[in-house]
Amino acid sequence: MVVAALVVPLIAGIPNREIHAATPDDTIIQAGQHDLATNLLVGSVAASEGDNASAALAFRNAAHLAPTFRLFGERAFYYSILAGSPEAATLAHAQPPGVMSALVLGNAAALAGKWDEALTQYQGAPADQIMTLLRPLLRAWALQGAGRTDEALATLEPARQDRALGGYYTLHAALVAQLSGQQMRADTLFRQAGSMTGGDLFTSLVMARWLVTQGHVADAQALINQRITGMPVLEAARANIMTMIQHPVVTHATQGLAQAYGLIALLIDQQFYARDGVDDDHQPADAAMEIGTLRGTEQMMLRMALMLDPADSEARLLLSSTLHARKQDRQAREALDGAPADDPLLPVYRTEQADLDVVMGHKEQAARELRDLLRQAPDDRMLWSSLGDALLDQQKWAEALDAYQHAMALTHHPLEGDDWRLLFGQAIAQERQDHWPQARALLQHALQLSPNEADLLNYLGYSMVEHGGDPAQAETYLRRALALAPSDNQIRDSVGWVLMRLGHVAEGLPLLEQSAEQMPQDPAINYHLGVAYWMAGRRLEAVNEWQNAIQFQPDPMDRRKITAALTYARAWQANAGHPGVALPADLRPAVAPAAPSHSQANGTHH
């Protein structure tokens, strides 16, 4: 895919300087100095927290207070786009010539039906690698909006020869012809685009709709089923999506413009997907800056798509996913709130919001929402799976297991791909109810489906040691997990803990210290480090770690272990190394298989 060049060019005219480096001279800030400083502080903090609407307002106020300092107005413009605010069009008039200002002004003209003005803006946007992809679609849809269909199709003709994206441009050409009433010409173009089997929801809907008009209803339904299989979250809206293909997908040129921006966002998202799970938070500085720029560009493209077409379901879902990837979960949830009341994908949005509630710790709210959705769609396996996740997070093991088993019963195909998650959820619920043989079988089955999942390897290896399994095999699983996710502190803690439990204290202790340094308020990690210190003969440091751990609200199982360790340590100190009480199991190496233990570290470590 042509994604290698999607980096900085689109933000032409928007400086990448940090706000704290932007200090106007004394003559600018003599009047309203305190208010200016306050707005700059508010804007900077809001921007760092992903609150783009508040950042835009604060920088707009700063620009009003210091009108000759152009950077503030540019920042207000930038964050207005990220917030999806109509104010961006007003601010665009004051911006220097650039891609973003041309696009925003062109979009505003299109929404107002001023197609010639929109065309002028799109044509006048500075050339760069992204505009090479975007401009043919923007020009074609502006020309179609102006009633100049032949020119629109001619504009797309060179782009249709592109080896990577030619099919996508052909699909748009077919829609332009169809919207203009040139059905025979549209049919020819749809046939030429027919090799596109639906890599995204929009393409699938368009092609399925055309198949319906040709009398091939079964083929259309098969295409939609294929798309839902590839994107299981859509399951909640299967019936609604099937209804969508009974009606035209694009009825206005602004919807075509929205899809043009969606294309750029999809290409950027594919670039992140190709990174195969590399953690964005642990990149070199230059790579991290590039990632941030890409994410910001993707978000701006999606905001423009939704400004042009609020019913663009795919853009809404991708925007929420992008915000979640940036750890802006509240904003990700809010992005799903803005859908029209009649949006066919509302059940999907509600499911995604429930999943975000789980991530944000709103566990009971998530479970209530999912149960409500299940009353409307009791045969939706994805909803049952999400409910299992929510209940697991609440440590309602039996209820979570029941939800996962409902999802399994509704799985009408051999387990494959992401189905390992269903097995993993069941395994955790079984293990926490002391059903280790069942849990082990589920984990091993899940590992057959997805042998390189670090979380699976971590949980299996850790639990094997805790339940008296083969120590050498457990160590192999954990070392593989750490090799797959070297920056994961929870996995590093698990490896260090198990190495220490197997008697390799000198090797395990540095890993535990590193984990505690990165996550100093995690009670399980503090407990583990304390045990390692105790076994290394560093008794005072061990007690200090356990005292820290007890303050950080450990779960009931961990609390019992920490309390037992502190009780033993106090007795040991009081009686000169002869405590007279039983040594807790964790304070002695587990080299030989031991009896199954009821004490498990909290769920984040598995």
From TrEMBL:
SUPFAM superfamilies assigned to the protein according to its UniProt record, in alphabetical order: TPR-like
TPR repeat ranges, renumbered to this chain: 523-556
Keyword Glycosyltransferase: no
Highest taxon of the lineage: Bacteria
Keyword DNA-binding: no
Keywords assigned: TPR repeat
Protein's name according to its UniProt entry: Tetratricopeptide repeat protein
Species of origin: Komagataeibacter intermedius NRIC 0521
